[in-house]
Amino acid sequence: MRPFAYYCIFLVTMAAFAGCLESDSDEDGITDSLDNCPDVANPTQADNDISAGIDGGDACDDDDDNDGVIDEDDALPNDADESVDTDGDGVGDNADDDDDDDGFSDASEASCLSDPLDSSVTPADLDQDGTCDELDDDDDGDGVNDAVDAFPEDASESMDTDGDGTGDNADDDDDGDGVNDAVDALPTDPSETLDYDGDGVGDNADTDDDNDTIEDSSDSCPLGLSPNNIDSLSLMYQYQIGLVALMDALDPDGDGAINDDDSDGCFNIEDLDDDNDGFLDSDDEFPLDSSEQFDYDGDGLGDNADTDDDDDGVPDSDDEFPLDSSESSDSDDDGVGDNADAFPFDSSEQYDTDGDGTGDNADDDDDGDGVPDSDDDDDDGDGVPDSDDDN
Q1: Which of 344, 366, 346 is nearest to 356 (CA)?
Q2: Is the pLDDT of residue 72 over 80?
Q3: What is the reported pLDDT for 226?
Q4: Cα–Cα distance, 28 to 132 (Å, whole number)
Q5: CA end-to-end distance (rounded Å), the chain
Q6: DSSP conformation class of 299
Q7: Cβ(258)–Cβ(250) under 8 Å?
Q8: Is a pLDDT exceeding 60 seen at residue 50?
Q9: How many CB atoms lie within 10 A of CB 38?
């Protein structure tokens, strides 16, 4: 055997002998002098932060990656760049672009004022257009910018003209003037409700409401017609009549001119008092005759000209009841016609309830029931107590 070989054997033997002499406190097979964790078994001698010059293997090091977070609190104890893994996906929050794994990146959640560490909290996106409400200038996607949208979170509404909290689409009185939009010519203008001539200017502001070129201040019928603006279809709709009836109403005498019988500047069709006698046409039985208004007996002759208004055969001049065809005389002048008066020639009596020949005024038992009127609570025997009876 060569001398060099002997020498090698000698060194190995000495090393083995020395090992036998050194202690191994944690019995991990590594002598204490060479063990990076002499009191804690660390057979692999793992030491994650050895490059940092920190003594102690991982088994006895409470911060393996030397990041300042003890291992028991460190989600990634061997990665000095990470210590938290909110969503538990194995990627630390520093490297993970969606810490809470809610499908929204941390950057977008930060911009949208959401919580990137809480998966139950995600950016609001009302219209689901992919842009969170915080960054969306039209949250409800109705095409109206939030800055001018009275209801930025309601796609069915964008205006509230009267500011009552109900959007114009749902509000039946947009301008809050008390007139339903369905009949309000200017539903978004609280100062206007009518536009007679449909020119877009409300009657309150319009100085010629009917557009007949005559200023309202000088127009006898400021809401009337003009030969220049007659719209047959509109008038048929307004008065709910057919074309023939409309022509008859405009020109009843068929002379080709629109009639204005009282020459007050208002055509008959629009004039509420065609004959200008002070009685509205609706109350006047002779709307085109200023000398007549009534025809009591319906004989076609007005009461002023009719000499027998009630048509009872007695001339009005001799008829004490000219408007009562059942009466014409009152012999005793007691206000009750002879036909209705049980005592037509006795002004102190008119009725005889029990027909005993003695008038009720003189009779102390009007209904003949044997109970004096002074004790009877139903003098006329009609079943209605006197306290409730008008007779």
Answers
A1: 366
A2: yes
A3: 60
A4: 58
A5: 162
A6: S
A7: yes
A8: yes
A9: 20
Distance CA 31, CA 42 (A): 11
List of long-range contacts for 106-109, beta carbons under 8 Å, 24+ apart: 108/132
What does the pLDDT look like over 189-221, one tens digit per residue? 999 999 988 899 999 999 988 887 778 887 777
Taking residue 193's Cβ as centre, other Cβ atoms within 10 Å add up to 19
3-class DSSP state for residue 366? coil
Residue type, 357: G
Q: Is 357 exposed, middle or buried (0-12, 13-18, 19+ CB in 10 A)?
A: exposed
What's 376's DSSP letter? -
Q: DSSP of 201-243, one letter per residue? A: S-TTT-SSTT-SSS-GGG-SSTT---TTT--HHHHHHHHT--H
CA-based nearest residue to 279, from 292, 296, 269: 292
- Whether residue 70 contacts residue 83, with contact meaning beta carbons closer than 8 Å, is answered with no
Task: Answer yes or no: is pLDDT of 18 > 50.
Answer: no
pLDDT at 83: 81
Give residues with Cβ within 8 angstroms of 379, minimum separation 6.
Answer: 353, 366, 367, 373, 386
Q: Which amino acid is at 55?
A: D
Encode 226-261: b = buried (16+ Cβ within 10 Å), e = exposed. beeeeeeeebeeeeeeeeeebeebbbeeeeeebbbb
Per-residue tokens: 330: 């009152």
Q: What is the CA radius of gyration of the chain?
A: 55
